[in-house]
Automatic annotation (TrEMBL):
Key word Transcription regulation present: yes
A GO biological process held by the record: phosphorelay signal transduction system
CDD domains given in the database record: CAP_ED (cd00038), REC (cd00156)
GO cellular component: a single term: cytosol
Keywords for the protein's UniProt record, in alphabetical order: DNA-binding, Kinase, Transcription, Transcription regulation, Transferase
A Pfam family this chain is assigned to: HTH_Crp_2
Organism this protein belongs to: Pedobacter suwonensis
Transmembrane segments annotated in the record for this chain: none
Protein name in the entry: cAMP-binding domain of CRP or a regulatory subunit of cAMP-dependent protein kinases
Length: 363
């Protein structure tokens, strides 16, 4: 099998971290890279740089020797020390023709050098060469993963979707920020990298029903993508989140190259329709007590493994809107559960004390 990925030829959008004490040089390099349509982060502090490297999806590092805190040698050693950062290419800036420093940096694992008064072309050539190498390494890794796993069906579709998603830059959303509104044109499929998202609908009187909650590792927006029209819900951030958007054009390319992606999307949509049907039946037939117990157990299961003393963190208003009841009614039922020793309340958090007994309420 020959592995092919069209977008690996495109370097635009790669995130580059500049670590330099010289503010003037730092600004010059940043301007050149931004003009080249790269995303840029920068700092003059080696310790701060390591925090950024460990917490952001950095594709390339451009690092000077003299820094505040950890120096350039220290940063290079740290990058090559950890398994989650060792694949990041590091280009070191060396003043003059310091052969001793260059030898030391090569021994530690530097991928490239910018020496003395380098020009724009030298900088961009180094950047493009290192990013191309990183993409080729990632391409080879995907090929090996695919050959080892030999996925089929739905797993195969998810494999290719995940592989593509990992090449995209996540967007950062703050609490209560809207990701998309109901009625907006569908632009793609969404993946929660971190945080928590809710989708909801509201009637003309302002009453809200939360249709789903999404946590780290969840995809959402399938039903709107397959409908090929407009968003059927509004999506809002519950907790600060990082979300990856996979554009429609990329998904269509994936479907053409790997038809099994269609199978994955269809099965995912069928599962979501089934969950919506269950939610409708609950609203129509289950008692309020049954709906509350089922919802808090189900949501706790999404946050972590269900066991006694598990903590569910969700604003009361959101929990009420998930269940489809008034906040006052929810408070009354939770008060009953507290008296019965099934739960404890800690601010907005609910601690499930007796999970099996809660399950018996709706079984």
């Amino acid at each position: 099998m020959v592995f092919c990925w069209k977008n690996y030829k495109q370097m635009e959008g790669s995130k580059i971290l500049i670590i330099l004490k010289d503010a003037k040089l730092r600004a010059k390099i940043s301007d050149i890279l931004v003009t080249g349509k790269y995303l840029v982060e920068f700092t003059d502090n080696g310790k701060k740089a390591m925090e950024l490297i460990r917490n952001l999806p950095i594709d390339l590092i451009i690092c000077g020797m003299e820094l505040n805190g950890i120096d350039g040698f220290g940063v290079l050693r740290m990058v090559n020390k950890f398994i989650d950062t060792v694949s990041i290419s590091v280009v070191m800036i060396v003043k003059g023709d310091d052969q001793y420093a260059i030898r030391r940096l090569m021994e530690i694992g530097a991928d490239g050098f910018l020496i003395g008064d380098f020009d724009d072309a030298e900088l961009l050539n180094q950047v493009e060469a290192r990013l191309r190498k990183r993409r080729l390494q990632y391409e080879f890794f995907l090929q090996q993963q695919f050959q080892q796993k030999s996925p089929t069906g739905m797993d195969n579709g998810l494999f290719w979707l995940n592989a593509k998603r990992q090449t995209l830059v996540p967007r950062i959303f703050k609490k209560k920020q809207i990701i998309f509104y109901k009625g907006e044109p569908c632009t793609g499929i969404y993946y929660v990298l971190s945080g928590k998202i809710k989708t909801f609908i509201a009637d003309s009187s302002g009453r809200v029903l939360i249709t789903a909650l999404y946590y780290a590792g969840d995809y959402f927006g399938f039903q709107d993508f397959t409908a090929g029209s407009r968003m059927s819900n509004t999506a809002m951030v519950v907790d600060d989140a990082q979300v990856v958007v996979i554009p429609l054009g990329i998904i269509n390319e994936l479907i053409q190259e790997h038809p099994e992606v269609t199978n994955f999307l269809a099965k995912k949509l069928a599962r979501m329709v089934h969950e919506r049907d269950e939610q409708t039946l609950e609203l129509a037939h289950a008692t309020v007590r049954e709906r509350v117990s089922r919802s808090i157990v189900k949501l706790a299961k999404k946050e972590s493994n269900v066991s006694d003393n598990i903590r569910l963190t969700l604003p009361r208003t959101d929990l009420a809107n998930v269940i489809g009841i008034a906040s006052e009614t929810l408070s009354r039922i939770l008060g009953d559960f507290t008296k019965e020793g099934l739960i404890e309340k800690d601010g907005n958090d609910i601690i499930l004390k007796k999970v099996e007994r809660l399950k018996n309420v709706y079984s």
